[in-house]
TrEMBL record:
Organism: Serratia entomophila
Protein name (database record): GntR family transcriptional regulator
Domain (HTH gntR-type): residue spans on this chain: 22-89
Family matches, as InterPro entries: GntR_C, TF_FadR/GntR_C, Tscrpt_reg_HTH_GntR, WH-like_DNA-bd_sf, WH_DNA-bd_sf
UniProt-listed Pfam families: FCD (PF07729), GntR (PF00392)
PANTHER family: HTH-TYPE TRANSCRIPTIONAL REPRESSOR NANR, TRANSCRIPTIONAL REGULATOR, GNTR FAMILY
Annotated keywords: DNA-binding, Transcription, Transcription regulation
Upper classification of the organism: Bacteria, Pseudomonadati, Pseudomonadota, Gammaproteobacteria, Enterobacterales
Length: 248
């Protein structure tokens, strides 16, 4: 999405390929995106500049730049006198996010089928296998990440970089919706749904794949619970400490 590696690279490396570039701002941006997508930073949570600057060892000016970038892709809301918050989509927005994904992803199925080769099928099968393992281990962060990667890689097969970028952005916003309104163990999508979609892709059954994908999104919407809860602000230094050590 914001980075330069959408399209073909996303098809090879999954959703994370869309985020990673090289400078310090990008590193902080990527860290915050990952924490939001994995529900370690929850919708409505405060993102205080001072605490984040201390966690990453940078100035508040640098944090402010990153928060502005996150606001541009609707992962963060910036409010006068209140500062930055993780975006908290309302019920109508939540429904619209998944309805838009349904329209885009189902409409792109014929192009996915037309461009799908053995290397794409192997990549998709690997994601489904990893996602299944994450669910077995109840590794919520991995399950969410792999669920998003399945959808982004599937659409990237068609080679339409613009559409892949849109889907990538919408999967991020979907994560916020599921964090707010999903069932206690609704970590991404149900992995058996993805196995069924992959089977139809392998059989090159385009019409059936589009229909099954539509049902997939309908099921996600049907299982959302439109209630909200407030959470305490996290310890940003502890949250990002392990990641920062690994980057040294």
């Amino acid at each position: 999405m914001i980075g330069t590696t959408i399209g073909a690279n996303a098809a090879q490396h999954g959703q994370s390929a869309a985020y990673f570039t090289e400078d310090q701002d990008d590193h902080i941006y990527n860290s915050l995106v990952k924490a939001i997508v994995e529900h370690r930073l929850l919708p409505g949570g405060k993102l205080p500049e001072e605490a984040l600057a201390a966690a990453f060892g940078v100035s508040r000016t640098g944090i402010r730049r990153v928060l502005q970038r996150l606001a541009a892709v609707q992962l963060v809301t910036q409010l006068p006198k209140r500062g930055a918050l993780v975006a908290k989509p309302g019920e109508e927005e939540a429904i619209n996010v998944f309805q838009t994904r349904k329209m885009l992803e189902c409409a792109n199925v014929p192009q996915v089928i037309a461009h799908c080769g053995p290397e794409h099928l192997r990549a998709m099968a690997a994601i489904v296998e990893q996602e299944q393992q994450a669910h077995l281990e109840r590794d919520g962060a991995a399950a969410i990440r792999l669920s998003a990667a399945f959808h982004v890689q599937l659409q990237a097969i068609a080679g339409n970089a613009v559409l892949t970028e849109l889907v990538s952005q919408l999967t991020l916003r979907s994560s916020l919706v599921i964090a707010l309104y999903g069932a206690p163990w609704q970590q991404g999508c149900r992995c058996h749904d993805h196995r069924d979609l992959l089977a139809l892709l392998q059989q090159r059954k385009g019409a059936a794949l589009a229909q099954q994908m539509a049902h997939h999104f309908d099921d996600i919407l049907a299982n959302l619970r439109f209630t909200q809860s407030d959470d305490d602000s996290p310890d940003f230094t502890r949250l990002f400490a392990a990641q920062e050590k690994g980057a040294l």
